[in-house]
Amino acid sequence: MADSMIPIGSISIPLTVPFGLYPVANISIGTPPQPFTVKIDNSGGDLWVPSRKSDLCKVGDCSLAGSFDERRSETAISDDFDNEFRIEYGDSSVYTGILIQDTVNIGEGKITDATFGLVYQSKNIPGNRMDGFVIKGSLGISYDKAQSDRNAHPYTGVLELLVEQGVIARRAYSIWLNSREEIAGHLVLGGVDPTRYDPPLVGLPIVPMTGATSEAMINVQLSSVICNNCEGESQVRDELVRDAIIDSSTAGIILPAKMARAILKDFGAVTDSLFAWPLVKCDIMDIDASYDFHFAGMYGPKITIPVADLIVPHIPGMVFSNDEDACFLAIKESGREFALFGSTFLRSTYIVADLDSKTLALAQAKEGNPRMAAPEVIEITGTSIPGVERVMTSLDGPSPTPTEPGAAWKGDPVYMDSGDDSGWYPNDYFPGKVTHHALPAKFTQTPKAKPR
To answer: Dihedrals φ, ψ of 259, to 5°?
Structure first.
């Protein structure tokens, strides 16, 4: 049996979340292996890395994240594989190159003849003060239909190859990012770890986006958001969001305008054209309040996120015009009637996605030591996710009247990543002082209890 066919059952991969942006992992490509640090993108189906000749490496530093030299790999196949590779993200950044094949090592798993994009050129790359640290590569673990160039150059993605070559049993994975105080978590390909969440683990159907005929992204339905301790009451924002995408490659949470504006009003948030995300007073982090995100009706999964976890820790020197410390709020409006839940959401949520059964399971994530071994990982081998208490088949129980879809996506989306890869800054210029005052927040001013 070839070593690429050794059955492992599941692959546990350590993750880090630099600057609170998105999870990244270490992989290697080629023979001998060339190391890379890549972004984990569960809304995309492509693996791509920069070539050593890429402009990404000429302008920035690729020594940490890695760059690929196909001439140094004994197993690279590029002569017969000159198809163009092109991927465009929601922040308008574009990466182009060619498709080639080689051996890819992910954790203890190994796949041969894997197709990936080798990027030579880029444009519209977000410029920000952390640009030197932005990861220049991506590992997509969604459906193959989410690949950037699926119609022109169809190929088998990494997750599918792991199944085809006998490394894992199903196209499934779980993600645990841990609390914002930690920078590390785990990705398990082909398995679920019950030590990382608090029951119940509730399943949702992965559904096509509005106007699409098949699944491409991890898309579910958001039914309501409840604010706990807003002016002493739980304020409910009932608004059925038909397209709610779980996207690990996005930093924050992006919501439809009506829902987002209501939440920004809770925080007393202000927007500034110099920044990609709204700003709030940093001392709101000390308030004992939270938001409950309900999916698929009142009997579907509920994820609770403390207010403090929705605020990016203060960056020294960033203040409002009245010299109060300013912090970023990791929630903003989408401009279209869809929602996007990035790493800010995933820090409070344990997710298990089974692409074969078209099921996404959610539970409240546990905090814990990311370096702790995962001896209780259960392989996903059957037609159901281990540990799931129930799977919702539709909106169950009271639900709000559906809103008009508005400017939702039309047609079969080949690839659309609405993530904001620019991080928390839209450009190189950092003014230090924001031109606005923060507005009054609407939370009851109850400070969090401090441990004795």
So the answer is: -70, -45
Confidence of residue 445 (pLDDT cuts 50, 70, 90): low
Of 312, 298, 295, residue with least CA distance to 245: 295
Which of 53-57, 67-71, 142-146, 424-428 is predicted with the least confidence, judged by mean pLDDT?
Answer: 424-428
Distance CA 175, CA 159 (A): 14
Q: How far apart are CA 31 and CA 12, in angstroms?
A: 22
- Per DSSP, the residues of 409-439 read --S--S--B---TTTT-SSS---SB-SSPPP
Neighbours of 125 (CB within 10 A): 21
Model confidence over 64-93: pLDDT tens digits?
A: 889 999 999 999 998 655 688 999 887 788
Q: Is residue 232 helix, strand or coil?
A: coil
Give me the DSSP letters along 266-311: HHT-B--TT-SS-EEEGGGGGB--EEEEEESSTTS-EEEEEGGGGB
Asked whether the beta carbons of 225 and 237 are under 8 A apart, the reply is yes
Around Cβ 281, how many Cβ atoms within 10 Å?
A: 23
CA 267 to chain centre: 24
Neighbours of 323 (CB within 10 A): 8
Q: List beta partners, residue 325.
A: 319
Q: Amino acid identity of 154? A: P
Answer whether 221's CB lies under 8 Å from 209's CB: no
331-333/253-255 β-pairing = parallel
Nearest to 36 by CA among 135, 165, 177: 135
How do residues 108-138 score in pLDDT, each as one tens digit?
A: 999 999 999 999 998 887 654 334 445 679 9
